[in-house]
Write a structure and sequence with these properties.
The protein has 8 helices and no strands. It is mainly alpha-helical.
C-alpha cells in the first residue's frame, strides 16, 4: 500500500509539471494551461501541449487587452518593470497632479496585468505620492 501511494504521488507530481512551470513563471495563460493539463494531460499529446505552452514565453499582456492599456505597457515583464521604474521620476510639467494620476493609473494597469508585483506597486506608488 505504501509503495502504491508513493507511485501515485510521483505520478501526480509528474502529471502537473506543466502547471507548476506555468505558475512558477507567472505565465499569462497559466490557468488555461492548468485546464489543458488537468483535462487533457492523461493523453500524451495533451500533456506535451501543456508542457510546451508552459515553457513558451507568452505575452505578459494578452493581445486582446493590449489596446486597452496605456502605451507605456510593453510585452517584456522585467524590461517593462525597469523601464517603468525609470519613468517614475519627478514630474517635469506644470500639470504635475495630472501626470502623477496618469502614472498611478499605469501602475495599476501593470499590477492588474501581473507585470509588476504588489510590493513593487506599493513602492512605486509611495515614491509617486511623495513627490
Amino acid at each position: 500500500m505504501v509503495i502504491f501511494l508513493g507511485f501515485f504521488a510521483l505520478f501526480a507530481l509528474a502529471y502537473f509539471i506543466p502547471t507548476w512551470l506555468a505558475f512558477s513563471k507567472r505565465h499569462p495563460a497559466r490557468w488555461l494551461i492548468f485546464l489543458v493539463n488537468l483535462l487533457l494531460g492523461g493523453t500524451v499529446l495533451g500533456w506535451l501541449i501543456a508542457l510546451i505552452w508552459a515553457c513558451s514565453e507568452g505575452d505578459s499582456v494578452p493581445a486582446e487587452h493590449a489596446q486597452k492599456l496605456p502605451p507605456s505597457i510593453g510585452v517584456s515583464e522585467p524590461a517593462q518593470a525597469n523601464l517603468f521604474q525609470q519613468q517614475v521620476s519627478a514630474p517635469n510639467s506644470t500639470n504635475g497632479v495630472e501626470q502623477i494620476s496618469n502614472e498611478l493609473l499605469r501602475l495599476k494597469a501593470l499590477l492588474d496585468n501581473q507585470v509588476i508585483k504588489k510590493d513593487e506597486f506599493d513602492q512605486l506608488k509611495r515614491r509617486l505620492i511623495a513627490m
